[in-house]
Write a structure and sequence with these properties.
Layout (H helix, E strand, L loop, with lengths): L6 H9 L5 H7 L27 E9 L8 E8 L7 E8 L17 E5 L11 H5 L3 E5 L20 H27 L5 E7 L1 H12 L6 E5 L5 H7 L2 H9 L6 H15 L38 H12 L29 H11 L14 H11 L1 H4 L6 H5 L3 E7 L8 H14 L14 E6 L12 E2 L2 H11 L6 E7 L2 E8 L5 E4 L11 E4 L5 H6 L6 H5 L5 H4 L3 H6 L7
Parallel strand pairs: 4-5, 4-6, 6-7, 7-8, 8-9
Antiparallel strand pairs: 1-2, 2-3, 3-5, 10-11, 11-12, 13-14
Helix pairs in contact: 4-5, 6-10, 6-11, 7-9, 10-11
The protein binds calcium ion (CA).
Amino acid sequence: MNHPLTPIALLIGAGLASLPAAANDKHGPPQRPPQPLMCSQLAGTAGGLAGAPGIKSISATIAPAAGSNVSFCQVDVLYGTSAQQNINVRVGLPLGPLDGGTGGVVGAWNGRTQGIGGGGCSGSLNVNAPVNAGYVGSGNDTGHAGGNCEPGVNADGSYNLQFINDFIRNGMKQQVLLSKRVAAKYYAKEPAYNYWNGCSTGGRQGYVLAQELGRELDGILANAPAMYWTRFQTAQMWGQIVMKDLVGGPIAAAKLTQATASAVAACDGADGVVDGVIDEPRACTFSAKANICGVPGAPAANCLNAAEAEAIDRIWDGPRNPDGKRIWFGLDRGTSINALNGAAPFFLGVTQFHWNTHNPMFDWTTVTTHTYANVAQAGSRNIADVTDTFDDLDVFRASGGKLLTFVGANDQLIMPQGVLHYYRQMAQRYGGPRDDDFSGVQKFYRLFRGPGVGHCAGGAGPQPQGMFDALVNWVEHKVPPNTITATVTSGGVVTRTRPLCPYPQTAIYKGSGSTDDAANFSCGGNLETREEVCDSVLVKYKHEVDGPLDYREGGTSRGECRRSGHGHHHD
Ligand SMILES: [Ca+2]
């Protein structure tokens, strides 16, 4: 062909012909370097995937440009190692040189991969965004169509562990592995860098990849991660149960909205800047009892009765067992209460109760504030070790990976204190001699909390910008993100900028200049106060008693919380 073997290579090759293939690969003749393929070849023998283990089917076609989306090579793989496993993986490849691609490292490709995560109980097969940016993009459907997690429990009360594991871990792991294989074949070049980009379930997927596929990715952007799936989804039902028990049913949405507004009004200024946002909602102790009708200062409209006020206080506090021990975290003040506590519960929370009890007919309305702990414990015993993805990051860290996370402090679906809980544990695992030393973990894993920001986006707070670029800069140029700029826009114009700070630091106003200008803030302080850490101590879950990760007191080793008898906690 273009590069015939030299006579010497042929001679050596002949001499080694009787050696095993492995030795021949290593010491044999210089191989003709691999050549890029045409898109259509990826589905055939040259692509190396057709007929390979686990590959049930593969197609490869050029997707035409559509609207603002560029044309690309679309590879669809059906992966499964049994009749029951059917994971659809899509890999979108910027056009290679044989398909007319230009302007990149090879063809239109920038030499990198970027996996895209899903949301809720769904994956995503939309690869346009990374492909348009020059990346090999990938997605998967987590092994099932649609967004229903009910099939995790069979009608006979057994778990469908194939469904659960494909959703929790297998889907995106095959996605990442296949995207790298396909890219290397198409362009005849290994990707220089491999990334993940997801929020919510996509964020959880990023954490699973860091924990369970630690050598495969260089950088992971995993925002608002739905990690501790069983723990937090069970907690999504806490407010509904509290309202049912105390009030007899859901509290009017307008009253919940007013309670949030009252909390913001009460605590907004504690951070030094009155801007409609509580920077540190955990330090806000506003009680909804201040909104009881007739109490001086209570709002004229949408005031509360005593039972409603108590219910809202307990929603903010989060689920506890009958002894007052914290089971999980609440919705921090300033967060929209309505999303989980409307006229109907959040559907995935209802499903989680079915998973916890492995009973698809289980009726959540039979649960009380006193028996909630039993359902949470059932989830812990029965399925949390499969779903909750709390493993360490040892391999990812040792491989040089970088993990970047943003979480909205007013996330209305996933309690942001959950990821703080995990971050605290990793800080202790990779930190210095002091429990509150985050410098070790920050070398490879940084968490930015966005005051006033909702789930993945939205809310009154400034919205984080450029996080994926910050991750790339960290991975490829060794520049860790010391701040993330967040912005408020109005009518397309940026009206406020504010730095987000690597947790546990927070943005502190310098005392002069516009509070709408990030330049007048600096990162400092330490949000990991003893008060917050001790209030975050959780009851022990199964893995913490039986499993390999025994973080005493469920996430902090600080004996001082036990000794102090702090808050609701008892020895
Ligand atoms: Ca404020």
